[in-house]
Amino acid sequence: MKTDIEIAREAKMLPITEIGAKLGLLPEDLLPYGHDKAKVTHAKLADLADRPTGNLILVTAISPTPPGEGKTTTTVGLADALSRIGKQVSVCIREASLGPNFGMKGGAAGGGMAQIVPMEDMNLHFTGDFHAVTSAHNLLAAMIDNHLHWGNVLRIDPRRVSWRRVMDVNDRALRDAIIGLGGTKNGHSRETGFDITAASEVMAILCLASDLDDLEARLGRIVIGESFNRDPVTAAQLGAAGAMTVLLKDALQPNLVQTLENTPAFVHGGPFANIAHGCNTLVATRAAMQLSDYVVTEAGFGADLGAEKFFDIVCRVGELEPAAVVLVATVRALKYNGGVAVDDLSVENVPALVAGCANLGRHIENLRRFGVPVVVAINHFTADTEDEIHALQSYCARHGAKAVVSKHWAEGGAGAEELGRAVVDLVEAGDAEFEVLYPTDAPLTEKIETVAKKIYHAESVYFPTAVRNQLAAWEESGFGHFPVCLAKTQYSFSADPKALGAPEGFEIPIREVRLSAGAGFVVALVGEIMTMPGLPRHPAAERIRLDDGDVVGLF
Amino acid sequence: MKTDIEIAREAKMLPITEIGAKLGLLPEDLLPYGHDKAKVTHAKLADLADRPTGNLILVTAISPTPPGEGKTTTTVGLADALSRIGKQVSVCIREASLGPNFGMKGGAAGGGMAQIVPMEDMNLHFTGDFHAVTSAHNLLAAMIDNHLHWGNVLRIDPRRVSWRRVMDVNDRALRDAIIGLGGTKNGHSRETGFDITAASEVMAILCLASDLDDLEARLGRIVIGESFNRDPVTAAQLGAAGAMTVLLKDALQPNLVQTLENTPAFVHGGPFANIAHGCNTLVATRAAMQLSDYVVTEAGFGADLGAEKFFDIVCRVGELEPAAVVLVATVRALKYNGGVAVDDLSVENVPALVAGCANLGRHIENLRRFGVPVVVAINHFTADTEDEIHALQSYCARHGAKAVVSKHWAEGGAGAEELGRAVVDLVEAGDAEFEVLYPTDAPLTEKIETVAKKIYHAESVYFPTAVRNQLAAWEESGFGHFPVCLAKTQYSFSADPKALGAPEGFEIPIREVRLSAGAGFVVALVGEIMTMPGLPRHPAAERIRLDDGDVVGLF
């Protein structure tokens, strides 16, 4: 068996201008980064504004399990399959964060015969978007401390500055720090810390902005903390939004690369999927829809988190109307949900599979609430037995969803053609009537309760008094119309990562709420969220090196 | 009068592939970054290894003054002039640091009709080299704290970790910080801080490395601090060099852009000119020499600092033999050196000019020590009178150097043709017999004394006992063969920035010494050196914004 990186290195990549040509893009519509990566220019994006848009397909998955589901792999394989059956198609996914690759290991975008390339670049600096986010974020941070240093006209309370700094490296020592030491010339001492770049609100903003003007407006609305009389202080008040926009102007242009089968792929933006919405940029998805008949995209984690945020945040903000949803499941992951230990997942176990299907069933039911038709993709593993697949397909049929076996990992797009045809059937039936889960004008507590009860199936939601007061204060300050972004364990519908399947009767405790006023949502934290990872005892960085020009140890 | 940015925006740029073609580079030898920037591939650099090299011209200047000398402008104008008189030529300069542009303001590379473009890109992210340096530097920092966290096998003394972190932003609050707060999970608390990226030893290494292998070896030799028993601890011992090399592999490829007159320009690397050597990368200079008959490059600050470091560090390391030196002076700057106040510099004053020529004369004399012939470029200002220019030319003639009036600022290459011909005459006379100032195997104190006495004309050098002991310890540890890099005020030959002209009889006090074992030099600090600037009360960032796609406020 070849590894992902071996397969990726053997890819017959087309020049990026030829990939652009598949979308009707001329060489001058592209800003090349090397010969295999390009950005679509702002000028071209503006040209596209009035184009009719293609069909948007969301790929999501059951609750994540240790054996993995292969969501990105399915996203890529489906796009290649649609291309094979004659559709003009693009795929849209997130960019990888550079920092963590030096901790554990970098990864393919997809896997097996269903990957996006060039893999090395995508795991390193790529086109510099993350660095631009880091620069813009930290410029604002420097301007805050500079403002404190030069007399603090805005009367910012240094104890209530919530804007931290970011760096795209796993560096636990930077989580909590005291800065401004060393005397008067170095400003005021205060406690703060660093997050990883993917956790920056600037990243979330980049991913939700519709164009440069909207980007600047959103950056200006960032609340960096509070004044001594508890009023929110914004980036606009510090005069930072224009300069931040200048730093991000190139980064807002979508990155175009390709799959192993030369299907156009937009890889753009990389926000966290817990404290942010976890999807690629709206700009990329919109451009892809204007340039293609079919667009396949994905959302972070399982459907309870990723798809919900995609629908309630991204589609709401971007006025997108998905035409179909692909829900990825594997026989192995469902057996795990049914109580089978990781080491025993290769052994046939139909009863456990059927028990685990409760998880799948609830996701199907949830997705239907959004009015979008669902097809289940059974991402095939060689150990899957015919009886298991039959049982899984029967379960899905009973729940009103077709389930298609897809062999894209082993066979590329050819192995996903049946899935592709199933998606086309759903789209052409035209049954989608997309609607968001809750109205924009509902109170913030009600929005959180709606997600927790309707999607997670919680019995109750616990709001500590401080949280209730904070949400009320934000509604008072004019942030009540924001959608909510719940940061919860991805491993269970509940707050307990060990409660697999389809738990019932639990409480969702809201520990803390955070305002992302620029991104335009309120984050409700159910558990502790790590926003700056650390390196392991022996980080991958110790093994990563160049070997005759090839990067080794990164994968 | 048009501003530099207005002139730059009106530039008729050629596609970067056409600029490459002027050097015999094929499209596949270039990695494009947009249509007006490219990197020359490692593969092509390797191909060039055995090529004969063209003539290297160093542009340096008298001691810097508030009215400015126009060193980069002359560098660019001379290259354009050489091109006009039929030479195949490239220009090599440093990259701008992004961070400070948001403090005061960004700048042109050159000025008037003698500039390198695209100006906006070069003042923003350019091709991402600075971000790569930041990433590599901070990965090593994270690996140090990670090593302390996971048991500290190397017995690193946390109090003696000299490796700080870097960020390309002016942020005084980060100069001194305590990190690792917040309990066990966040590692060990210790005091450290941040420098600006240009001050990173990784930047100096990138600029002195000959290829990827040498880069990795140099990164491995970085001394990050000391163990409890005072032994140096290296990046190689932490296993960081391979991963840092991977992060820097693209950055080591020289960036190709162009002048307003479409002369090929390599803009690559940007180390500090005090705690480092202040020149563009050796890789770029070498590639330019392999691809062109004439290469014009420059060194930071005045000739006492910049040219000395270029000769004693860069040329020594890179085995370069410069063919000629252009020493830039202006009538205004010499009058300032002769005691005229800034406001009166536009009034004719021949006696003050002649008095100020003492500064010029000493630089001429110093440059001759290196065995390279010198021509003085009088960078023309409209207020210069004929009598002043005549007096200046007579002074130079008496000191054995031709002085040529150059009007490249107003007229571009056409205005510098006489200078170009003077340079060609020097080169074709073939009188250069380059030699470094001091032998590699001299003791470190002797090297410092040689520079201070022969170049600065100091009467004595003061070494505190701790400094003497430190230098002796480094010689003991095998670093005695390093050249020295003196960090001194650039405004005077002495340690007193107010002592203009050609002061005598002063002492050079060495305050502190620092080891740059990867870059391969010992830094001797004569004064306080600021390695992390702050933002002013009203930073440029408050005015920088996009206006209909154009960046305003940055210049």
Automatic annotation (TrEMBL), chains A, B:
It catalyses: (6S)-5,6,7,8-tetrahydrofolate + formate + ATP = (6R)-10-formyltetrahydrofolate + ADP + phosphate. Pfam families: FTHFS. Pathway: One-carbon metabolism; tetrahydrofolate interconversion. Keywords: ATP-binding, Ligase, Nucleotide-binding, One-carbon metabolism. InterPro entries: Formate_THF_ligase (IPR000559), Formate_THF_ligase_CS (IPR020628), P-loop_NTPase (IPR027417). Coiled coil: none annotated. GO terms for molecular function: ATP binding; formate-tetrahydrofolate ligase activity. ATP binds at T65, P66, P67, G68, E69, G70, K71, T72. Its EC number is 6.3.4.3. Transmembrane segments: none annotated. One of its GO terms (biological process) is tetrahydrofolate interconversion. It comes from the Bacteria. The keyword Acyltransferase does not apply. Belongs to the formate--tetrahydrofolate ligase family. This is Formate--tetrahydrofolate ligase.
